[in-house]
């Protein structure tokens, strides 16, 4: 059974990982800019559900995949990288359309579901007992959600206050933000793809 210091460690470690720039956080930033904090709150809920399902699935499946079929795990990683690359292209097109098209709940949910941070949390941060003991599982998930909420809110708020910084619209505008976000996500997808290939090559 997990103790209080274990839960604090899970919360702190998860917060360090979740606050890092990535596809989901970038989308929350863009949503904060285009929709504001209140309308973006449903996206934070979708992110919670996405992480909950993804972490749970990885925690149960990763050992089986690695033991019986590492090729399946490799394919899953490649599909995740390809989806993130597709997401980058989608955000770039939003910028080229020059409108305030909203980031949808489905987009946030799928992005979070395929976010490699879930894999890291399930395999490195949460103890293995969380996937065999109901008590440890519930409190581990609560610890992660406790870390996730302020971070998600912070990324969304940063996007929401960006219009206040636009003293020179010709130098800073939403199109520029979307393009930068698109490049960040695309680079992230390349790193995912390369990491998957290198890891697979080293294991074989």
UniProtKB/TrEMBL annotation:
<dbReference type="InterPro" id="IPR001123">
    <property type="entry name" value="LeuE-type"/>
</dbReference>
<feature type="transmembrane region" description="Helical">
    <location>
        <begin position="43"/>
        <end position="62"/>
    </location>
</feature>
<dbReference type="GO" id="GO:0033228">
    <property type="term" value="P:cysteine export across plasma membrane"/>
</dbReference>
<keyword id="KW-1003">Cell membrane</keyword>
<feature type="transmembrane region" description="Helical">
    <location>
        <begin position="12"/>
        <end position="31"/>
    </location>
</feature>
<keyword id="KW-0813">Transport</keyword>
<dbReference type="Pfam" id="PF01810">
    <property type="entry name" value="LysE"/>
</dbReference>
<keyword id="KW-0812">Transmembrane</keyword>
<dbReference type="GO" id="GO:0015171">
    <property type="term" value="F:amino acid transmembrane transporter activity"/>
</dbReference>
<dbReference type="GO" id="GO:0005886">
    <property type="term" value="C:plasma membrane"/>
</dbReference>
<feature type="transmembrane region" description="Helical">
    <location>
        <begin position="68"/>
        <end position="89"/>
    </location>
</feature>
<keyword id="KW-1133">Transmembrane helix</keyword>
<feature type="transmembrane region" description="Helical">
    <location>
        <begin position="101"/>
        <end position="126"/>
    </location>
</feature>
<keyword id="KW-0029">Amino-acid transport</keyword>
<feature type="transmembrane region" description="Helical">
    <location>
        <begin position="176"/>
        <end position="201"/>
    </location>
</feature>
<protein>
    <submittedName>
        <fullName>Uncharacterized protein</fullName>
    </submittedName>
</protein>
<feature type="transmembrane region" description="Helical">
    <location>
        <begin position="138"/>
        <end position="164"/>
    </location>
</feature>
<keyword id="KW-0472">Membrane</keyword>
């Amino acid at each position: 059974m997990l103790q209080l210091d274990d839960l604090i460690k899970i919360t702190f470690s998860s917060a360090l990982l979740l606050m890092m720039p990535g596809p989901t956080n970038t989308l929350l930033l863009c949503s904060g800019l285009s929709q504001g904090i209140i309308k973006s709150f449903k996206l934070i809920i979708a992110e919670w559900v996405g992480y909950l399902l993804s972490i749970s699935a990885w925690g149960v499946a990763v050992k089986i995949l690695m033991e019986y079929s590492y090729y399946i795990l490799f394919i899953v990683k490649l599909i995740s990288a390809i989806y993130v690359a597709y997401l980058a292209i989608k955000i770039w097109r939003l910028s080229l359309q020059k409108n305030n098209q909203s980031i949808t709940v489905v987009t946030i949910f799928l992005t979070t579901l395929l976010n490699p941070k879930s894999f890291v949390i399930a395999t490195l941060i949460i103890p293995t007992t969380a996937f065999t003991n109901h008590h440890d599982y519930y409190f581990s998930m609560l610890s992660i959600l406790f870390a996730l909420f302020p971070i998600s809110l912070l990324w969304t708020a940063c996007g929401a206050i960006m219009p206040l910084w636009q003293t020179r619209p010709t130098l800073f505008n939403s199109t520029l933000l979307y393009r930068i976000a698109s490049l960040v996500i695309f680079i992230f997808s390349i790193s995912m793809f390369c990491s998957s290939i290198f890891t697979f090559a080293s294991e074989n």
